[in-house]
Amino acid sequence: MDNGSIAFVGGGNMARALIGGLVARGRAGASIQVAEPVPALREALAADFGVGTHETASEAAALAGTWVLAVKPQVMRAVCESLAPLAQARRPLVLSIAAGITSGQLDRWLGGDQAVVRAMPNTPALLGAGATGLYANGRVDHAGRALAEALMQSCGLVCWIPEEALMDAVTAVSGSGPAYVFLLAEAMHAAAQAQGLAPDTARLLVLQTLLGAARMLSESGEDAATLRRRVTSPGGTTQAAVETFEAGGLRSLVDAAVAAAVRRGRELSADG
Ligand SMILES: NC(=O)C1=CN([C@@H]2O[C@H](COP(=O)(O)OP(=O)(O)OC[C@H]3O[C@@H](n4cnc5c(N)ncnc54)[C@H](OP(=O)(O)O)[C@@H]3O)[C@@H](O)[C@H]2O)C=CC1
Ligand SMILES: O=C(O)[C@@H]1CCC=N1
Fold it and tell me: Do 147 and 249 lie in a common domain?
C-alpha cells in the first residue's frame, strides 16, 4: 500500500505551503494526493504542482501510506472519524498539523492504536524556510520518525519537541510567528508613509530592513540584544524609538500575545 505517496487532507493555506515546499525540493507532484472540497483550490493545486486531487478525504487517503491532516481543528474530529475504518485497515503514518488537537484525540478519533505525529509548521515552508516542531506518540517507530522528519525537513528547519504539552508553545511562537512579523511590517510601512515616504519606497525600505536584520540574526552569531545595542547610538534616533517601544510595553505585549495564542491552542482541544 505504501508506495511513498502522501495524502493531504485539506488543501488550504498551510497545505499549499507544504506542498509547494516539497515540490520545489524535488518531490514529484504525482506522488501527492490532496483531498479538498473547494473545486477552485483543487484546480489551482493540480495546475501549480501536478498533484492528484480528490473531493473526499477517503479517496485521497486510500492512495497513500502517509496522511497529512491539514484541516481546521474544528473539523478534525469529523474528518478523522470518517477515516477511521481506513486507518484501522491500513495503519498509515498520520501527521496532523492542526493547532491544539492532541495525539490522544487523533488516535481515539481514528479508532485507536495509530502512529500519530503532530507537526507544527509555518507558511515560510513554501520557500523551504519553514520552522516545524514535531512530536510523535508511542506508536511511531524509528522509521516513522525518520519519515516525518525528512518530510518536514524538505520545507525547512525541524525541531523535535520532547513533551506534547509544549506543542501549544511551538504553535504560538513559530506556527503563528510569521503573522507577528507581517504585522510589524504593516505597521512600519504605515508609519513610513505617515512620515512622507512614497508607498513603494516605504515598502522597499521596510522589506529590506526586515530581511537584512533577519540575516544578521541568523548569520552574525550574535544575539538580538547585542545587535540592537549596536544600532542604538547614545542619545540618537534609535534610542528615541526604542524608549518609546519600551514605555509602551512592547515586551509585555509580546508576552501576552504569545500567552493568548497558547491558551487558544488549549481551547481548540477542549471538546472531545
Ligand atoms: N495557516 C498557517 O499558517 C498554519 C496552519 N496550521 C494548521 O493547519 C490547518 C489548516 O489551516 P489553514 O491551511 O490555515 O486552513 P484553511 O482553511 O486554509 O485550509 C483547510 C482546508 O481544508 C478544507 N476542508 C474542510 N473539510 C474538509 C474535509 N472533510 N476534507 C478535506 N478538506 C477539508 C477546507 O475547506 P472549507 O474552507 O470549505 O472548509 C479548507 O480549504 C489548521 O489545523 C491549522 O491549525 C498549522 C501551522 C500554520
Ligand atoms: O492561526 C492558527 O490557528 C494557525 C495555527 C498556527 C498558524 N495558524
Answer: no
